[in-house]
């Protein structure tokens, strides 16, 4: 009798194992796909990569497909035409869409960075930098209307420098070509993101003398946003996405620059580990990484001030017109 039962027990065990395996696969298939377009690939966005590397999105039941869309205009075009579901880009882009009278406005729902991410690099720097030194110089800036350029001009004006009159402002060079232009001899000063600023320091091509992030204050500088219609139709997915981002922000806040660098370096295969650590530490020290996803009203108003000063704002959109903090607030509960 035992000999007859044994084959059935073995077969039953195999069937149970097979069903269990199928169940796991089914679980993976049930992940909700979310297409995210980031405006550039940058260590400035470290919490985003932590969320992927630490499987925080998967823990929320999401399969995030991350694409670098290279530029604010291209990122917003991809979002508006349905090429991506969520964009990581500066909040000013949502305002530009709003000013054009969009029927389906773009809504900011989870902040990632809360300061400008650029630095002032001098070709020949003295012992102690003074902002007046920029007067009469050639300044290699960023694209007109973009957040880096607006934050840069806002800072210059705050130090009594008129960027249109007191220096020669160059801002017709493509974002990707700005470092090469400076390295080849264009400009006395340049406004750069990391890690290029630290690389130039390492190579002796320039020296970081000031931080535009520190100078321009807290802003909703880089935010996850989507069309209002997508958020309305995918509220649960938006909430899960925001939950993962908040967990990543907490992880970044609680870990060292070395630990963060090791987590995100797979996304930056050509970046030296020591440079990555220096960059991340610099951003942590100046508070660039937001501690939570909430876009508060004070930051929003600071952004509007910067845009107004740059002459890029037709009217001041109310905070609640383009910001939905309900997902961020729930993530904190």
From TrEMBL:
Keywords: Signal. SUPFAM superfamilies: Periplasmic binding protein-like II. PROSITE patterns: PROKAR_LIPOPROTEIN. This is ABC transporter substrate-binding protein. Its main location: periplasm. It is found in: Periplasm. PANTHER family: ALIPHATIC SULFONATES-BINDING PROTEIN-RELATED, TAURINE-BINDING PERIPLASMIC PROTEIN. It comes from the Bacteria. Belongs to the bacterial solute-binding protein SsuA/TauA family.
